[in-house]
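[Discussion] Sanity-checking designs against the backbone

I'm trying to build intuition for which residues belong where. Below is a structure token string of 156 positions. I'd appreciate it if someone posts a full sequence so I can compare it with mine line by line.
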């Protein structure tokens, strides 16, 4: 099903912020690449403390995963007709449901890009993530999913 769904201003702002975060992390890593130590943290425990070390080439892999995630989520955003929504689409609710779903996707993409960027910068600087990182990330992700699901159910 082909559906033309324009982006809202808030969605465009989230898309722009995701792009800036993604490109910014790449440019930052490129700018400091020579100064990154040969051995950097490659894994963190739940408290945000590094518990494994590896070569700085692991940053390339991390940013490749970030790029793949960013590009996939961006591409999916252009095809609202294939999205799986928690409510049945009707002629009356199609645009509001799909618009809200796009907002959800934009926000999740922003979180993921920010998370990968923060992890990459922490790795490059050989710094801990901080004890706050995991709980904040989980609250943001699952909180956003919960709010989205409640709003969708209320749209029935």
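Best answer:
Here's mine. Compare freely.
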């Amino acid at each position: 099903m082909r559906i033309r769904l324009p982006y809202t201003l808030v969605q465009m702002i989230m898309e722009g912020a995701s792009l800036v975060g993604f490109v910014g992390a790449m440019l930052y890593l490129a700018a400091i690449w020579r100064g990154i130590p040969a051995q950097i943290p490659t894994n963190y425990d739940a408290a945000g403390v590094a518990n494994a070390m590896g070569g700085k080439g692991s940053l390339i892999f991390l940013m490749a995963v970030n790029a793949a995630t960013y590009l996939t989520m961006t591409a999916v955003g252009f095809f609202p007709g294939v999205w799986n929504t928690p409510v049945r689409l009707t002629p009356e609710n199609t645009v509001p449901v799909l618009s809200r779903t796009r907002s959800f996707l934009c926000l999740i993409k922003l979180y993921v890009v920010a998370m990968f960027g923060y992890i990459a910068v922490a790795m490059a600087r050989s710094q801990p993530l901080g004890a706050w990182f995991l709980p904040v990330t989980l609250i943001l992700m699952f909180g956003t999913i919960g709010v989205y699901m409640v709003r969708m159910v209320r749209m029935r």
